[in-house]
Amino acid sequence: MPYENLEINTQTPVLSWANHPLASDETKMAQNVASLPFVFKHVALMPDVHLGKGALVGSVIATKDAIIPAAVGVDIGCFIGDTLVPLVDGKYYRIQELAEQYQEFIVYACTPTGRIVASTATAKLTRKNAPLVKVILDNEEEIICTPDHQFMLRDGNYQEAGLLQPGTSLMPFYSKVDKEGYTLISQPYSQRWQKAHWIIARSGLLGEIPKFLGQRTVIHHRNFQESDNRPENLEFMGANDHSAYHRSLVEQNQHWHSPEFEQKRIAALAKKAQTVEGHNYYAERGTKNIIKYMQQQPEHFKNAVADNGNRGKQYLITYNTSEEGRAKSKEIANRYYTCEICGAEVKTPIGLHNHRKKEHQCNHKVIAVIPLNYTEDVYCLTVPECHNFALKAGVFVHNCGMSAIKMPFNGDKLEGKLKKIRLDIEAAIPTGFNENKEIEKSVTNWQRWHDFQDLHPGVQDLENKSMKQMGSLGGGNHFIEVCLDTENQVWLMLHSGSRNIGNKLAQCHINTAKELAKMAGNNLPDPDLAYFVANTPEFQAYWNDLQWAQDYARFNRDVMMMRFKHIIEKHLAGGKVTKPLLQVNCHHNYAEKEVHFGEDVYVTRKGAVRAQTEDYGIIPGSMGAKSFIVKGKGNAHSFCSCSHGAGRLLSRNKAKNVYTLDDLIEQTKGVECRKDNDVLDEIPGAYKPIEQVMENQSDLVEVVATLKQVVCVKG
């Protein structure tokens, strides 16, 4: 549906996707916002628009050099255009070049436990003329980015570039090409090198890994470029079939069959065997063949080596006591090994292990962070599944609500388990005003606690409460749901925010804005539209606290989703950890710096979701209706936004007066959920029909998956 330009008497237009007339009080609220002098272009109203505080819920407001502290927000950190990003094709690309291609590509990403995987991504221009810092690493690499971009720490948490301290350990990305041309990646969790094509396979990008009867599974590079690990270039084959295929290609080349070539080949192999590298190569290959022989023909092996000890004992004693043997033992004891990370020469394999552990801890460390006195246009990646990506510089960085993950389970596995799952969720995740009785280690390890002392003085007594609430759902329209899509696949979805600490921070800054407006004599149409002007101390303090609160909200969802996922795995997989098929996270009620219509603006999405091209988003219905996983279409007139849900038809009090408990039971039929008066205000009838809401924004998003909940836990 195209938008409607509302006939409201303001200099700034109001564009609406609601497909219905606004009520008089809604019109007045839209008019108040559109009358503010710093509003840019127009105000956009999403299909779920309804009354809010100060501004309509479901409104998108772009502003120049000012911001209204009525939403929780976070800035997007970004990189200059020359920043190099390694892709799985074995090449490095400038991030600006990736943004100009307007297509998906595959990057290396890292899980919180330090396992490197492959994931699809897109790139885009995110800001013009952004302030910058230079991050200098101990490998002599320099990264130029915005001060707010988050770097992945060695423990899996994140820290903004501007807050990194000298000596801070970062999650590392090491890669190299072996002598056969294959790309190797060092896994931080194990410090072992792994072939990149198997990382691609184990990330699920090639489908299920097949088994070949009597053969080891290998991966063939179709274009014979061993460093090109794009999924379309990789093919599973049996080891014997793979060798036969290569031999068939050799047989087509008569030169390779000539006696002259064969003599040269044998001579080259003999020469290679005389080198240390060649000797080690053939020794390693021979060891593998012997082990295979021992495993496949154990009886034959036992007979073949019978009495070897007695026969070889005397030869071994003679050799060890000879001058040659003693020299060899001394040489082995004093042999040096090269550290593949820094190139240092270290005596003995044990010494090499200790060196890597002590000197590197398999990480990169920050040397310095230097503010720069110039600005540039900056870019970032969207990595929907992992939310981080590797830079050529050798570290992982974060990319830019609600959270949903698609699990590798069929809905049939849920049969007879729904109530137990709901009870387990309610036992593991506090709801309403409740908090965790004990603070788990992952919460206390969250790096942003170090910045708590820099928050507004009005919240300094809430640190302990904030820790206890980390990993709790809250109340209102917050929820945790188990859903099924149209293919009967299980999805996990939750909606939560920054809990009490976010609300308190917002109130502190809203009060400050109101006091400033009163002192300045600003005649605002609504006191809740008080604002901060850019480059003032009040603005900077507010922006800092917004970023902290949004980070808190994101990590709060991560903690809950981890517990939620463990519960589902307990019931459906016997507790075995499983890899999600897709992960989606999206913010709403927040503000960002973005580029729209060629200008830098602050975009406040009050109850709306960003829907730039290829952005994944979540649009949930009510507790008895469908929900949708969507991709953005990048509609410029909506400031690349869409709705964040169905939107209320009735206030909470009115819903309780209109509907009964019997109505709630009827409208949530087939959903395992609480059916009592405490959740009556969340009855589906209190919300707009989600199908109509989705139809009204068909020009804003495309539907990726349609979900229907079977378990719902309300806050």
Task: Describe the structure concisely.
By secondary structure, the protein is α+β, with helices and mostly antiparallel strands. Helix 6 (276-296) crosses helix 7 and helix 11 (418-428) runs antiparallel to helix 15. It is elongated, with a radius of gyration of 30 Å.
Describe the protein in words.
By secondary structure, this protein is an alpha+beta fold. Helix content is 31%, strand content 29%. It contains 18 helices and 37 strands. The strands form eleven sheets. Strands 25, 26, 27, 29, 33, 34, 36 and 37 form an eight-stranded mixed beta sheet that branches. It has a six-stranded mixed beta sheet with strand order 1-2-3-4-31-30, with helices on one face. Strands 6, 9, 10, 11, 14 and 22 form a six-stranded antiparallel beta sheet that branches. Helix 11 (418-428) runs antiparallel to helix 15. It is elongated, with a radius of gyration of 30 Å.
Quickly list its features.
eight-stranded mixed beta sheet; six-stranded mixed beta sheet; 18 helices; 715 residues; alpha+beta
Portion in strands: 25-35%
Instruction: Describe the sheet with the most strands.
Output: 8 strands, mixed
Task: Provide the gyration radius in Å.
Answer: 30 Å
Mean pLDDT, all residues? 87
Low-confidence stretches: 71-76
Find the count of extended strands (DSSP E, 2+ residues).
37
Q: Calculate the terminal CA-CA distance, rounded to whole Å.
A: 33 Å
The share of residues in helices is 25-40%
Number of distinct helices: 18
Structural class: alpha+beta
Shape: elongated
Q: What's the structural blueprint in terms of helices and strands?
A:
Layout: E1 4-5, E2 14-16, H1 24-34, E3 39-50, E4 57-63, E5 66-67, E6 79-80, E7 84-86, E8 92-94, H2 95-101, E9 105-110, E10 116-137, E11 142-145, E12 150-152, E13 158-160, E14 169-170, E15 175-177, E16 183-187, E17 192-195, H3 196-202, E18 217-221, E19 234-238, H4 239-251, H5 259-273, H6 276-296, H7 298-305, H8 308-321, H9 323-333, E20 336-338, E21 345-347, H10 349-360, E22 364-382, E23 388-390, E24 396-398, E25 402-410, H11 418-428, H12 441-444, H13 463-469, E26 479-485, E27 489-495, H14 499-520, E28 532-533, H15 537-573, E29 582-586, E30 590-596, E31 599-606, E32 608-610, E33 616-619, E34 626-632, E35 641-643, H16 652-658, H17 661-667, E36 672-673, H18 690-695, E37 701-714
Helix pairs in contact: 6-7, 8-9, 11-15, 14-15
